[in-house]
## 1
Amino acid sequence: GAGVSQTPSNKVTEKGKYVELRCDPISGHTALYWYRQSLGQGPEFLIYFQGTGAADDSGLPNDRFFAVRPEGSVSTLKIQRTERGDSAVYLCASSPGTNTDTQYFGPGTRLTVL
Amino acid sequence: AQSVAQPEDQVNVAEGNPLTVKCTYSVSGNPYLFWYVQYPNRGLQFLLKYITGDNLVKGSYGFEAEFNKSQTSFHLKKPSALVSDSALYFCAVEGMNTGFQKLVFGTGTRLLVSP
């Protein structure tokens, strides 16, 4: 079956612009996670959705970052007033829903802020 | 607070030799431990996990890992390395037991298998 997909695969934007990154989880997975991976680092947790609600957004770095999952499937990570420090690979993962389930990751979106 | 340490930035091994990639962790609750592999320009691929039960966990592509509670370690091993195993390996832990899986990752270990 289809895995987690993310679009776009690459996004180049200018400082100060707004961007949206999309994640399509595996069908039927109720849990969805966003992570950010900076160069040379491991992924860092941003936000977790169970169904439509953001159950934990403690990893979002500041209020320029926001994510939604309005129908409990596709999720969009939104970044306002982008800064050069936002440049990273943004990874999405989904799992069936319990805390022992495996998270399956998408290929990521590489964001470059010029 | 949770943390994961991968003390080696890179591990070099000859094809056919056994390999070990080290991981130690620190958590406040019971640890759930994971290994993922990342190939260039690809997302993370799941290899194996320890949740409970047998300390020796077997996973994909012939990899295995041993959970050692006293040493707080979860080293990844393979009896005979392949050149195609060359990639970036990440250890991750969830130990807050909050009801969902807030993974904390190590910084990664690059495995280079030479022919």
Note: The radius of gyration of chain A is 13 Å.
## 2
Amino acid sequence: DTAVSQTPKYLVTQMGNDKSIKCEQNLGHDTMYWYKQDSKKFLKIMFSYNNKELIINETVPNRFSPKSPDKAHLNLHINSLELGDSAVYFCASSRQRLEGGGETQYFGPGTRLLVL
Amino acid sequence: DQQVKQNSPSLSVQEGRISILNCDYTNSMFDYFLWYKKYPAEGPTFLISISSIKDKNEDGRFTVFLNKSAKHLSLHIVPSQPGDSAVYFCAAIPNSGNTPLVFGKGTRLSVIA
């Protein structure tokens, strides 16, 4: 069974379009994340949701809007796509972090977005 | 400003030998460190972690060493196998709340048979 799944796996679209990427986790985790891996291969956090509530919103254009309908889902909607949005987007999830401890994040397979 | 640095973009090692992947960090608030392995067209998968209260954690062929005073950690793989060929990301978490991972740029390991 896939722990963290993303759809679609590949997305090719024209500049100016609006698109969504879906993410689902079946691990019972409380926290979900969206990361972007750019052309320089940096993996950077975009958003983090804990129990459907936004807790981290890095400096991301407001064309990007995450939506969490429930704890198991975190979707990413992108308006007015630009060439620079081309990247691989990874969803991840983790349990609530314990004080003084750490928590492994589990990643989805990634969505490869190409904006033409 | 890179808080987690992996200065070697690539590393080649003979099968059966030791692979040593290095990682340096600048933020003294990091207190938990992880290594992820990534194959092409897949998401990163967790490999091994270490808390800042330890200096070594071992899991089978994989050992992570942490030197807090030097702000340096390393991943040792011994013996290296061809299936270990992948990109390895070092990541760190600050000691507060539900914070995301801060990743290094990754090191591509090639294990040659």
Note: The two ends of chain A are 34 Å apart (CA to CA).
